[in-house]
Design brief:
By secondary structure, the protein is α/β, with parallel strands linked by helices. The chain contains 28 helices and 18 strands. A hairpin with a 5-residue loop joins strand 4 and strand 5.
Length: 670
């Protein structure tokens, strides 16, 4: 994957696009593409690209054009079925000059127009510039693996893979978005097109956008893909056949993601999903698969026992790194800088460290297991919803709430350990089973309490239910006809997966280290097969991912197959207060810094920090954990991104091969 950036004039009387600014925007993305830069410019647009070479190392430079240079593409991502697309398009008379997947996009657009995206199997964010039609066409993959931001300012549309690239233009206003922060403190991330930044939007996952310079003043956005589930209960069918279809879909999604001209490794967390992916890859290789994992000193977070069992069973060549509290605190400012978003957990930090290990080991591509929990019902939130609905049928029952005790066995401070407290938490609004957000209300309500600490000016106008109200307006027409499990899956996919897990915790941490992540469970065929499954094959009573266990059990070591679900987590407050507090924490959370940023109230923040110091970060409540992390991360955002304390270094701004240099404005002037 790479980084893209550009400028598009929206006014005919606008000056020529600023070439140096476009290159500066690309160089701000050098971590995404350290292998070199490219630029195309004419009177209307400047397209800039930072390249991470994965496929066709010599011929895949961008921006790339068709033979007569009437179509130009600037592309971040991978199109895994590019070989099949090339064959299809060659049969229709198209001639290819490179072996890259990028060129397949140009010819597919020439042949199919906007409908080209229906034929793509991959992860992408791209813009195609049609010189003759003076039209820009943007697209982003189904679940938003690859980011794409844009803003209109002074008659120019600026777009980029990251917000820091947009902010290379010093005239762009910089401020935290109230609505974006509201959603981050409800859902853990803003839902596209919202972002945490005022005036900055993002192309939604699964969307396309068209900008026609003859009539548009901003991109016209339409969503082509979103998760869809059968109305009512999915037909049962032949269970053995459905299990087989899952196996073949996941195998196909894994195999096609091995296409690369560089070595491909795999993350191995010790959980079901990553072990399945590694097993499918390792079973078809003569050379041992290279796998990578992160370990923790604290047993509550550590999965090393299962990682080692998987390595021994699969015979992989393994590298691991132990993440200590001091490591998390040490990299956290860099993590926030690359996430560009409020963080309610420190979990991205160990994954940043893991991606750094991958890069230092000479790898730039890894496969991971993200998406399996969302599409095959692996999370505790799905089991919570089932227990609560069962309990709601007889709310006075003494036995039914006891099922809550089967949740969270991996947590030392389990929210269900105290039965009465668990009943109070999960029993709120128990009878409101017709609420479209029933599955997620307990979580969202708990997270939203953090907003009580916001500065009054920041809270102004957002309202207690504004975030949920905006989401309600975006729900699919058939949403309430889906099963409760399908509704819960949809909410998890469109909020947490796209906005946080694939972004702040996923792609952004890998690309900060010039590593590309690939996600077999997010293959379109895998997602479609999963969406069509009966609920009982995904969540059988309280057995999560039942069908995956049946489909892949023979590939896995018994310890991994039979273990209880343990989601990836990391220590939150303890790294910053356990054995010393980093200077940047003191500086960012001082009363003066809180006042200057204008995001939080100084007094509640001071009280929370005092509590953190007193406990050393241990035995904090879940809400306190989230509040501390949200406050520190937004203060770092204010310092490093809004106020611009961190800038692109002089070395980054001047180095790097210029692989493509097409400047029609300069040529015309010459």
């Amino acid at each position: 994957m790479c980084g893209i950036a550009g400028l598009i004039n929206l006014r005919t009387d606008a000056p020529n696009p600023d070439r140096e600014l476009a290159l500066k925007m690309a160089r701000a993305l050098r971590h995404r593409g350290p292998d070199g830069f490219g630029i195309y410019r004419d009177r209307h647009v400047a397209l800039a690209h930072s390249r991470l070479s994965i496929i066709d190392l010599d011929g895949g430079w961008q921006p790339m054009a068709n033979a007569d240079e009437t179509l130009w593409v600037c592309f971040n991502g991978e199109i895994f079925n590019y070989i099949e697309l090339r064959e299809e398009l060659t049969a229709k008379g198209h001639h290819f000059r490179t072996k890259s997947d990028t060129e397949a996009l140009i010819h597919a657009y020439a042949e199919y127009g906007e409908a080209m995206v229906d034929r793509l199997n991959g992860q992408w964010a791209f813009v195609i510039w049609d010189v003759k039609q003076r039209r820009a066409f943007f697209s982003r993959d189904r679940v938003g693996i690859n980011p794409l931001f844009w803003t209109v300012h002074r008659g120019v549309l600026r777009f980029a893979s990251e917000v820091k690239s947009l902010f290379q233009d010093p005239t762009i206003p910089r401020a935290i978005s109230r609505e974006g922060l509201d959603e981050a403190l409800t859902f853990w991330a803003p839902i596209a097109p919202l972002t945490p930044y005022e005036g900055i939007q993002q192309i939604p996952p699964g969307a396309v956008a068209t900008l026609d310079l003859d009539r548009d003043v901003a991109p016209r956005v339409s969503v082509r893909f979103r998760p869809e589930f059968p109305a009512g209960r999915a037909p049962g069918g032949d269970e053995a056949g459905l299990v087989s279809s899952v196996r073949e879909a996941v195998r196909g999604g894994s195999t096609i993601r091995l296409r690369a001209d560089v070595p491909v490794g795999s993350y191995l967390s010790g959980g079901l999903d990553s072990t399945i992916v590694a097993a499918l890859i390792a079973s078809n290789r003569e050379v041992p698969l290279r796998t990578f994992s992160v370990e923790f000193a604290e047993r509550e977070f550590d999965e090393a026992e299962y990682q080692r069992a998987a390595v021994a069973h699969l015979g992989t060549s393994h590298a691991s790194i132990q993440c200590r509290d001091a490591d998390i605190a040490g990299v956290f400012p860099e993590v926030v800088y690359h996430a560009e978003a409020p963080l309610l957990r420190t979990a991205p930090a160990p994954l940043f460290i893991l991606a750094r290990l991958v890069r230092q080991s000479g790898y730039r591509v890894v496969l991971t297991g993200e998406g399996a929990d969302e599409f095959f019902a692996g999370y505790d939130i799905f089991r919570e919803d089932r227990v609560r609905r069962f309990w709601a049928r007889h709310p006075d029952s003494k036995l039914r709430p006891q099922l809550l005790l089967r949740l969270y066995p991996y947590l030392q401070r389990s929210p269900v350990a105290q039965v009465e407290m668990a009943k109070a938490f999960f029993g709120r609004n128990l009878a409101q089973t017709d609420d479209p957000f029933y599955s997620h209300r307990p979580r969202w309500d708990a997270t939203s309490r953090i907003k009580l600490m916001l500065d009054p000016a920041m809270r102004e106008g957002i309202g207690d239910t504004a975030a949920a109200d905006r989401l309600r307006e975006q729900l699919p027409r058939d949403f309430m006809r889906w099963t409760p499990l399908a509704r819960a899956q949809y909410l998890e996919i469109t909020t947490l997966l796209s906005g946080y897990l694939l972004s702040s915790q996923g792609e952004r941490m890998m690309m900060a280290n010039s590593v590309e992540g690939r996600f077999p469970f997010l293959d379109p065929n895998v997602m479609d097969v999963a969406d069509a499954l009966p609920d009982a094959l995904k969540l059988r009573t309280l057995d999560e991912k039942h069908v995956l266990k049946r489909a892949m059990g023979d590939l896995l070591p018994p310890g991994v197959l039979e273990r209880k679900k343990q989601p990836y987590r990391a220590p939150v407050v303890q790294p910053f207060f356990g054995s010393g507090t980093p200077d940047y924490v003191e500086a960012c959370l001082s009363p003066d810094a809180i006042k200057d940023a204008g995001i939080w109230q100084a007094q509640p923040v001071a009280a929370l920090i005092a509590k953190c110091r007193k406990t050393g970060g241990k035995s904090m409540s879940n809400t306190d954990d989230m509040a501390f992390c949200a406050i520190l991360s937004t203060q770092l955002m204010a310092r490093d991104i809004i106020q611009g304390a961190r800038v692109v270094s002089a070395a980054d701004d001047t180095s790097g091969r210029l692989g493509v240099d097409v400047d029609r404005v300069r040529d015309a002037a010459g």
